[in-house]
Amino acid sequence: MGRLFLINLEGNFYSCKHCQTHLALADDIISKSFHCRHGKAYLFDNVVNITVGEKEERMMITGMHTVVDIFCVTCGSIVGWKYEAAYEKAQKYKEGKFILERFKVLGPDGSNYFIAQELHGAGSDDDD
Question: 25-40 as b/e, with b when 16 or more CB fall inside 10 Å?
């Protein structure tokens, strides 16, 4: 493997909770209304310093989607997923967008998200 060239973001950004690698700008959040196994998840327009896994079909609350898991390029931790394709017309806006699971990243102020902060099971976009 060659040398890693990381993108350092300026301003308010989310980072990997394990290694603090910059992942996304707070300004690139499209929606904070997503949920996953570990609680809140945010939909982003752009995410940096990631690698992607294999494409897979995943049945979610909002229907079938083709997704790839996304991993921190520095430590390899899974931080969310990217929507490659949505089969429901109303879900097409997600294509090419990224989900960062709040439980797996640090907030712009360096804060961790804890599952106990909200009622778990309030409806999930990811059925796993």
Answer: beebeeeeebbbebbb
| Closest to 45 (Cα-Cα) out of 9, 82, 98 | 98
Residue 51: left (phi > 0), alpha (psi -120 to 50), or beta?
Answer: beta
- The secondary structure of 71-116 as a DSSP string is EETTT--EEEEEEEEESSGGGGGGTT-EEEEGGGEE-TTS----GG
Q: Which two tokens stand for residue 104?
A: 């797996």
The tens digit of pLDDT for each residue in 30-67 reads 999 998 877 899 999 999 999 999 999 999 888 999 99
The span from the CA of 128 to the CA of 37, in Å, is: 7
**Owner of token pair 């603090």:** 20
> Could you give phi then psi for residue 99, rounded to 5 degrees?
-110, 125
What distance in Å separates the CA atoms of residue 125 and residue 127, rounded to the nearest whole number?
6
Is the model's pLDDT at 126 over the cut of 50?
A: no
**Which domains does the chain possess?**
29-115 (2.170.150.20)
